[in-house]
Design goal:
Elements (H helix, E strand, L loop, with lengths): L29 E5 L5 H8 L5 E2 L29 H6 L9 E5 L9 H8 L4 E6 L2 H14 L8 H6 L1 H5 L22 H9 L7 E5 H6 L1 H11 L18 E2 L2 H12 L2 H14 L4 H14 E2 L6 H22 L3 H4 L7
Parallel strand pairs: 1-3, 1-4, 2-3, 4-5
Antiparallel strand pairs: 6-7
Helix pairs in contact: 10-11, 10-12
Length: 339
């Protein structure tokens, strides 16, 4: 597949009815499908700096995962594409000599995304990043707290609510994608990869291991560039984007959020006062400082006893993944001493 071949894509059965001109629009050549908190943001930022690659400003359009539709759209979150035509418009500025791609971390979790991606672009190249299950779920939990999908500060408590939340109970009121609260579902790695291997050839799917990415950021990135058939000798700037942070206070976070959105009479009055005292872009910057310095902080050390429980619970997944990929992840991830 050469850059620009996507423009010849045929009709698809995907979310949203395509407009008459949708099939003549550029569709992505490659997809970073996840997981979250596993280097996907850093990979996105580094790839989009390459002159032969185009990735839209909107990192996670989430469009090709119909089972991940939000139950409502959060304030100040932008407007994601609702139709195929709007989705394809994200790639309108890609040149014919560039690879076009996107990164939606939900696509690996999704049960429908693999087939929906194949419907849009059967020649797509797929990039997945997998992380040791216990550390991944801990980072994911902290991220879901930060994005208001989760409210339970204790990971053990959050995971214990999976069954209730699957039945639609105990879901936080600001949780716009409660599907993400099914923590164990995130680490069914073999099932996730099989969904992609069922619709794409083995040479179209690249599986990265987070440990390799952390140990050799540049080397891993260059292997991705070779996978995408672009110049892998181009100078690169390595980075560590989207670091894990801890939500210090749910109450402070709720206050900052209410001021930023202006919800409720008190919040609207407070926001109006701040704007009068600090015109222009200053209020937004002030809220960003509040988030970084007051609301967010360094994550606490993990509960090692519970981490061991999670590793024991998911050892079977790691063994199955090792067999599936033909790589000893049991030893790499320290599961060889777990009974």
């Amino acid at each position: 597949m050469r850059p620009g071949d996507a423009e010849a894509a045929t009709a698809v059965s995907s979310p949203g009815a395509p407009a008459d001109g949708a099939l003549r629009k550029r569709v992505p050549d490659f997809f970073i499908v996840g997981h979250a908190k596993s280097g996907t943001t850093a990979l996105y930022e580094m790839l989009r700096s390459h002159p032969q690659i185009y990735m839209p400003e909107s990192k996670e359009p989430w469009f090709l995962a119909s089972d991940m539709r939000p139950r409502f759209q959060p304030r100040n979150s932008g407007s994601p594409p609702q139709t195929l035509d709007a989705y394809l418009s994200l790639f309108a500025d890609a040149r014919s000599d560039q690879r076009a791609g996107e990164a939606s971390s939900s696509y690996l979790w999704s049960r429908t995304a693999a087939k929906e991606i194949a419907g849009v672009q059967p020649a797509a190249r797929i990039i997945a990043i997998l992380r040791e299950p216990a550390s991944f779920l801990r980072s994911l939990h902290l991220q879901l707290l930060k994005t208001h999908v989760e409210v339970k500060q204790d990971l053990r408590t959050a995971i214990s609510l999976e069954d209730a939340r699957r039945q639609g109970r105990r879901i936080p009121r600001r949780s716009h994608r409660p599907q993400l609260l099914q923590y164990a579902d995130h680490v069914h790695y073999v099932d996730q990869l099989r969904r992609y291997h069922e619709v794409f050839g083995p040479d179209q799917v690249l599986v990265l291991i987070y440990d390799d990415f952390r140990r050799d950021n540049e080397g891993t990135l260059r292997s991705v560039l070779r996978f995408l058939d672009v110049d892998d000798t181009h100078p690169l700037e390595v980075m560590d984007a989207n670091p894990t942070v801890r939500l210090r206070s749910q109450q402070l976070d709720d206050l900052v959020h209410s001021l930023s959105t202006g919800r409720g009479p008190v919040a609207r009055a407070g926001k109006g006062l701040v704007k009068r005292l600090m015109p222009g872009d200053a209020p937004r910057k002030l809220l960003q400082v509040a988030l970084h310095r007051v609301v967010h902080g360094e994550p606490r050390p993990p509960d090692e006893a519970f981490m061991l429980e999670l590793r024991s619970r998911f050892k079977g997944e790691v063994v199955a993944l090792s067999d599936y990929l033909g790589r000893d992840l049991v030893t790499l991830w320290g599961y060889d001493d777990i009974g």
